[in-house]
Amino acid sequence: MSHGTALFEHSPWVEARADARPASGDRWADLMAVMHDATPDEQLALIRAHPELAGKAAVDRTLTQASAAEQASAGLDRLTPDEFQRFHALNAAYRDRFGFPFIICVRLTDKAGILAAMERRLSHERDAEIATALEQIGEIVRLRLKDMAA
User: What is the pTM of this model?
Assistant: First the structure.
């Protein structure tokens, strides 16, 4: 089953594994089961496949189409120089602390909400952030599936 838009950033294995299993009739639930059944290393690879928010890929215009649209929906394509600096500093601090990019479903928040979440989540434990990142990927995928059905 090929889709015009990738549900998971640069991680076709999730959909491929779901396709290899008996379908429950709920595509999102099937995909989440694969994601949660993956090994910790696979889960980290999935998290690391996501671009930083307002990061290098956004500047270089190398984001996937879905990510570019999602970041634009939260105004991340229209940052002031000060906002860009804050995102850059928080992204770097987060990546240094956890070893993976900060992930949030940007379509469910806005610039201020994202920055507040980045600051708040910097104080979390790594395991909690891995769980939060996977949960946020789940929300991203849920909305992308909904778009495809529309």
Answer: 0.90
Within 10 angstroms of residue 18's Cβ, the number of other Cβ atoms is 21
Cα–Cα distance for residue pair 26/4, rounded to 1 Å:
19
C-alpha torsion sign, points 112, 57, 103, 31 = positive
Say how far apart CA 138 and CA 103 lie, in whole Å. 11
First to last CA, the chain: 17
CATH code for the domain defined by 13-149: 1.10.3330.10
CA gap 115, 94 in Å, rounded: 12
Q: What is the pLDDT of residue 130?
A: 98
Span 69-100, pLDDT tens digits: 888 888 888 888 899 899 999 999 999 999 99
**What are the pLDDT digits (tens) for 9-31?**
889 999 999 999 999 999 999 99
Q: At what angle do helices 40-48 and 126-149 cross, to 10 degrees?
A: 60
Of 121, 144, 145, residue with least CA distance to 132: 121
Which amino acids are annotated catalytic?
50
